[in-house]
């Protein structure tokens, strides 16, 4: 290694032993690092640029509830424009208008209020919108103004013609100020680049911590800001809302010094500490209060650009500063943009498709993009994060995630992760177990975000996510502890009528509303627990929860043929309209569609409902019946666009329904339905989504179904086969294997599958096993336009 | 050491080498620990029980603002009864009635609202009163009720006949419930013992985090509570008030299980997270909101006692739980009480006195007690604490303290600490330097508590405290960093007209009120910085600040003979009443008394004021002039009881004034004044203090003066001699030395000192050097009733 021996001798003679040792250590460390780098370079597969097919605008109009801004896969920062500030509640009463603004952005809006750093993707209730920044020029205005009169505040008009949204990058022209705004992000840091117009000698940056999504008077609990020096500001924002006790810390750095700054305080807390010693309104670096807005002025006379790095932390301002320094230690905006694109391509390349057309390619990779927007990383670069107990914890051997919209995502998103994101999915489960440890209820998450449980929706579907990972051998977590967490969660009597469910075998409608939905979902989750227990050899638990899993039977009314609310005295509730979505024992659905929710036992359910033929007719009716608009009007999370007959694709409880044909004598009937949904309910363009994307669940349905299979019952390794819309797909598995899917004779008309061949063998039943995917292999669908005879 | 050789051989033969090594390690560790313990046992000096002379009730009536509750020296927990809930502000306007309740307790009050865990001692503005507990029986009431109608709420009538207050222990009979309440404390944990009456089968414990001192609607920012299990509750309380952004964490443990519990929420924040899944009002363990009150019910049918341990933390609930487990890992109330008494005796024994009578002994040891109530420890048992930047810091090589009432305590309390608490005083300076490091202003504390700067009063007297320690060689801190902190603090232009002071040499009254007081105090602090610089050999700084120290001259008006407000154009303000305390350029004083505030240059000041004779007459007038009541009416912190003529002992700016006679031709004139003050302004009984004790400053004056000397200008090693009221005092110094003080021929009439002898040598001047105390030695005052000829 040291070829030049005289030189080596010289070195040895001129150094003492310790120095020589140090030298050799450094030399070998260098050699070893270089070797590692070479291996990594070699291991990096050649990535295709799939980001070009992603359109973050899809879902930003109507009910998609996605945001167009800049973020990286599973990133903590979602830096995105907010187009309005509709309050969640006015005078303490819910304002239904707010629903449009779950992600802060509505495509039809003519103005942008500013750019905030946190957004949920596709949810049907909301929060966040932290730390809005808005560059302005001219007269300083600290209020946001109104859509009708943007000139009355700091907001600006904008046009989609001068707006760009790409994975990891967003830009827009703020027309009222003639400012070009660009933004990109790393995991914990957003970076803004503002280009000011020629005539702006001094420009303002508005910082509005009073802004928020699902805002209301009272949401801001406390804001704390320190202007540390002329290029660094730190602080935090504490809110109460969907998350009751939420604090987000920040560090904001500028690439040029602040000229001057100031704050307005809008609360009337009589703070007496200052003894009138200071003018707090201007250039006073120590700011706190309930309602604060600030401005920072910059010299833009010759240097027309201002860059702002904005780091978040769940722990502290110190954590935010460290995140900032670690993730973006430079001011090269374009480098961050490029790295964000690379991160996206790394994830998007996990499935390489050959679509029928460009539209399908856009839909597919945008669905992939939406599927990887959450859950989001929730810890500092050093692994510290705030727990549910509001203490600081350290994620020692995992990445901690937050924002678990589990009632949605257990269905297809986490199953998708078990295929293309197994490492992250295991870490998500570790995060859920940490949540369980920190929960004063000893419960796994229901819908949790930012160290809070918001309890949204029903069931305890963490159990499904964990069980699915266990049966699929994705078990880089303590499975024993996980099983304990699941069974403990399933026995918290005071949780949402669970004691009644345990005592009576169903939730009685006279004790708790949406009783049928709850009974059905508890029963499914119980089955999932049983599957995990079986896999882990815990037979007593398997038996116990298999018994509970049958509880769906207790709400089946053979007379009406529907699942139907029962009272605590055992009788069915008398008044009953199976089409009505209100007060009938269901949540976000009616008896027609929700009665089909027995994903873990379709055969038994079909038996209960009168056998295969009768059930087949029932499904046929579901997809074809014509309903007056009134039936789904005013039902949250259900919009006209998502409906086919009485089937509601825009909301989750129906997502497995088309695949139920696989348990009838006519599985082929699923095929045209699935192809119709893929074609009609997912489109390109801002209004392309037919319902809330729900943190990737709608998109995960698309990804599975377009490849020809779907996880009807997570917790089973079986996927129901459908009808692929793609020509080909190659799944690059983390274990290095490849799974190839191809649709032979694929055309728009050839929607039926006449046979399915796995690794050269015809599949007898319309099901695929997860382990066959993970082993790698080849799945061939033979497409036809004729109704096949599969039996 | 191993005497039994066969046994040893057996052990050796039966163990492998590793086990043997481990065994030997353990053995030697045991031997070494035992030896250490023996040394410690030996080193413990025989302590006298001086706690019997402490009466915590002194100062609890009228304006003393002390509290009678249980605490240990410099303890973080001050567990004390609060007798009313007067709001600080009503409809946003200051309510002057609140002033009586700075420490939560007023002796004349007939009811006790409950027992809260944090109290300032003797301050003239306030905060705290965290986490009120109140045991009740009968009908559950969650509101505190009123003094006039205690039955309308949870409060109770009480009588001083059935009330006991001792160092570290407080008890009272709650007459309305017939409950005996007792409490004691360790540093971070309070322990309550409630004895319920025969007829109380179920008893309530009210937990009221809405209660607070200097409370107002809006002070409660957020409260978070978790009922972790049936004997442990954790949480925090976040308030805004004197401290703007303050959070205190707690852990509360019961010695018997909760039967049931509940909460009322009084705010109207529309929290929607619960989706009506739970009855949150009862037995729901996850509680948060702006305004919360709770109750816990206990079975008191047979076991009549309930004990509650209540730990505080500045960091987290986890920190509070650790503090609880570490400090009081048992339920032995009497042991905690005994240990608290021992801790007090250890501190009180630092000065062993022979007083003239029992009253003097009570006054002296109560003054010692009050002097050791603050600053208070502010960190967890593991050294973690919240800093001014709201980040968590670790006190690596010191105890972190908070609650620095420096405008008061720099005068005599910290100088007293340099004699009897040098270690703690150095740690307090380290705490101040940590504050400086964390300050966004780069300023040392002005008046800081609980990770907040409340900016109360004027000057930057941290400089005095640090300089005093430096010149007195109490320098277990980084003196270079300390000097830098002092000079940096003294140059923050935007702080309280400091830029004007630096530019003009005085604060102009047209730019900032109380301009003369500020100019005088800045000048003194600058002198203190100069003294520190001199001691550290930093001559440039010495010169610079010595120059600034002369600025008192700039506000002296030779014409009127008073310090007088000047305007920014250089002229003196025309309208001027040297007796008025309002709008004359002074704060909490008038030109008559505040003009004497040049503690660092009395000789020069006397020269300026016309020489020694004229000045002597001036002092004579000060003490004898008769003033109409109106002059001091409505002047905060000044009450009739504290006044002698125009001399105001009840407030700090005059504390050095009697000693100024030492710079005249008649030092003896100080003697009868000092003895009069010692006799008349300090009494036993609840109304014994003639003004706010101000976190020990009033008491420290007593301790110094009763021993015959006083630090007129901290930052100098010189003490001015006065007239001791004690017969003897022995100061037990931390360095092991003893300093003996004796007053020979001491009687009530013999108030004059005819000579003072230090270690056998007559002192020529009426001054004593600090180093002579620390070396140990003997100081003898020869007392006489005749006016001595000292010149």
Mind explaining what this structure looks like?
Two copies of one chain form a homodimer. Chain A has 791 residues and is an alpha+beta fold. Among the domains of chain A are: 5-43, no CATH class; 51-345, Beta-galactosidase, Chain A, domain 5, CATH 2.70.98.10; 380-478, Glutathione S-transferase Yfyf (Class Pi), Chain A, domain 2 (Up-down Bundle), CATH 1.20.1050; 490-597, Glycosyl hydrolase family fold (Up-down Bundle). Helix content of chain A is 28%, strand content 22%. A nine-stranded antiparallel sheet of chain A has the order 8-9-10-11-19-15-14-13-17. In chain A, a hairpin with a 4-residue loop joins strand 28 and strand 29. The longest helix of chain A is centred in the N-terminal third of the chain and has 27 residues, at 17-43. The radius of gyration of chain A is 28 Å and the shape is globular. The termini of chain A are far apart. At the A-B interface, strand 13, strand 14, strand 17 and strand 27 of A face strand 13, strand 14, strand 17 and strand 27 of B.
